[in-house]
Amino acid sequence: MVIAAFLGTACAAYHRALDFWPLDSANGLRGLFDLLGGPLLFLSVAGILFVWFVGALVALFRRRIRGMVSRLIAIIIVPVCFGTMITVPLFDPWLWYVIFNKSRFEAAAAASGSAQNGTIIEGRDVSTGIAGAGYNHFVALIFSESDPPKLVYGDSDEEKLAANSVLTHLYGNFYRRDEYF
Questions:
Q1: What confidence category does residue 51 fall into, taking pLDDT thresholds of 50, 70 and 90?
Q2: CA distances from 109 to 102, 103, 105, 160 (A)
Q3: C-alpha–C-alpha distance, residues 88 and 69, integer Å
Q4: Structure confidence by residue, pLDDT tens digits, 89-134
Q5: Which residues contact 121 (CB under 8 A, 6 or more apart)?
Q6: For residues 172 and 142, is the Cβ–Cβ distance under 8 A?
Q7: Sign of the Cα pseudo-torsion (143, 109, 22, 158, in order)
Q8: 141, 98 in Cβ contact below 8 A?
Q9: What angle do CA 112, 113, 114 make, to 5 degrees?
């Protein structure tokens, strides 16, 4: 059961890490991690789940109900841990990035002079996969004291951004905007 929880957590941590790690820093290492790490992790998790499923069937035929139930529960724990890590905001690296750098980001927003209307503090390209095979994913960290959806969905390009932009509240006046092209 502990191994199952570790596998689900490792898959979610891989997904969260690629959602935070920009393309421009250590590009070769991130590319290697993106292209080789994902398939190897997926194949190892799928293989282990298959072995557990076969073990559950063997335990069923040998009438060892406790062994079968424990293997089936271990199989269920993997997606539960993955889903929990992905959906709960506490495990979002952007939240902790904002919490640890709050004073620096607030000073940068005050220096720009547009904190009331909203200002983009930092932007990152966190696209994954082979170029051209998937969507480009851009993340912007926004500080806004008033109406952050106005910053995301401007008056002129509201229809264009409404289709491919997601705004998430992180902490205090900090928001994260995900754009997919």
A1: very high
A2: 10, 10, 6, 26
A3: 28
A4: 888 888 888 899 888 888 888 887 665 667 778 887 777 766 556 6
A5: 105, 108, 109, 141, 142, 143
A6: no
A7: positive
A8: yes
A9: 95
